[in-house]
Amino acid sequence: MDPQGALVDEPSSLRGWSGRPTLMAAAHRHDDLEINFVAGGGSMLYLHGGELLDVAVGGLAVFWAAIPHQLVASGATRVHWLHVPFDRFLAWGLPQPFVGRVLSGVPVVSSPDRADASDPARFTQWAADLAAGDDELHRIAMLEIQARVRRLALATVGDPVRRHPGDDPALRQAVSMARYIADHFREPISVADVAAAAHVHPTYAMTQFRKVVRTTIGDYVKLYRLAEARRLLVTTDLPASQVAAAAGFGSVSRFYRVFTDACGTTPARFRHGRGL
User: ATP-binding: present as a keyword of the record (predicted)?
Assistant: First the structure.
């Protein structure tokens, strides 16, 4: 299975796999906790949450994949991936500072000097257990994955996020625009506003952004608004009208239309499915 497909909006799923990463054709999102472990080669570089995120070999990264993300560079030769549906992650009852950090869209990354020698074997076993179709193996894998994430939460309290400065001018401009979107998507924003953040002309901004992120500025803003709406539906009891406003949608009708088209269900059914 190729984990780096070109889909913009992927379904949530519980699965694990490993292999050599390929660069992603476009930014995408899915409503899971994503866990990456770089087992060999060099580092992976993500555009995530308006920033460049560097995951070094031996590093373990955990983030909420509803935030648009895209693998833009990689020297890794072997990576392990896990996707855990976000409602299951929330049900684990992890320490609130850790959960709050993940919910706010900030990745948690362990440095290589904190690598666990057993991680390669563990990730391989978890992927096999999740694919086995055996309820007991599935239960064991989930307990062990939860324990590994708990250890990560304990080890990374207060750690800064590993960021990469970016050396390519087009990449730096795209990051500036993505960062502006991440900070302002709740507000009415235009292409001109986004372009100004990178100090370029709007037409040039659209070209450069699509060149790097492989999607339009408007679609990228929409992904952010959908991620925020999902977060609010999962973590609050705000009515749909307030969720729509807080996530940056101009109207409740537009919120319902965009959400249903992207998620295949209404906001109310999405919330009900998360137990709220």
Answer: no
